[in-house]
């Protein structure tokens, strides 16, 4: 892979915010020419596929300002500095759904938008949900509503583009594949 490597000559920080850092890098390309790369630095995120005892998937609906609309998604959130992904997963599950768990299974991780961002998303699954006696308060600026759907209902939401983000589409595809494997 070294033959495609770009060497950073200079980095200019544009913005350092609560969630992302923006920078522009001057790079030398493999052919020796110069170019600029606009980059988003992100601490990473975690998403959870929570399955209830009656085999429904717990989703959250929330408004997404960049899209100017609400989306239905699996619970997810940003990694805090130094925080292990499993801890983030449980924290977000509790804050967003009112459930907790003592058992998480790692599914996969992937880069969300490698053309311009370094965000790494970790996906976990649990079917060992316990309802919290005292719900945990979420972020002050986050407003979510939970809903529970069967896998068939979730697939229908994908077709209708009510579920329309990569991590949630991945989760549904993963569950669909598990269902097909288990029926063989």
UniProtKB/TrEMBL annotation:
<protein>
    <submittedName>
        <fullName>ADP-ribose pyrophosphatase</fullName>
        <ecNumber>3.6.1.13</ecNumber>
    </submittedName>
</protein>
<keyword id="KW-0378">Hydrolase</keyword>
<dbReference type="GO" id="GO:0047631">
    <property type="term" value="F:ADP-ribose diphosphatase activity"/>
</dbReference>
<dbReference type="InterPro" id="IPR020084">
    <property type="entry name" value="NUDIX_hydrolase_CS"/>
</dbReference>
<comment type="similarity">
    <text>Belongs to the Nudix hydrolase family.</text>
</comment>
<dbReference type="InterPro" id="IPR000086">
    <property type="entry name" value="NUDIX_hydrolase_dom"/>
</dbReference>
<feature type="domain" description="Nudix hydrolase">
    <location>
        <begin position="40"/>
        <end position="171"/>
    </location>
</feature>
<dbReference type="InterPro" id="IPR015797">
    <property type="entry name" value="NUDIX_hydrolase-like_dom_sf"/>
</dbReference>
<dbReference type="InterPro" id="IPR020476">
    <property type="entry name" value="Nudix_hydrolase"/>
</dbReference>
<dbReference type="Pfam" id="PF00293">
    <property type="entry name" value="NUDIX"/>
</dbReference>
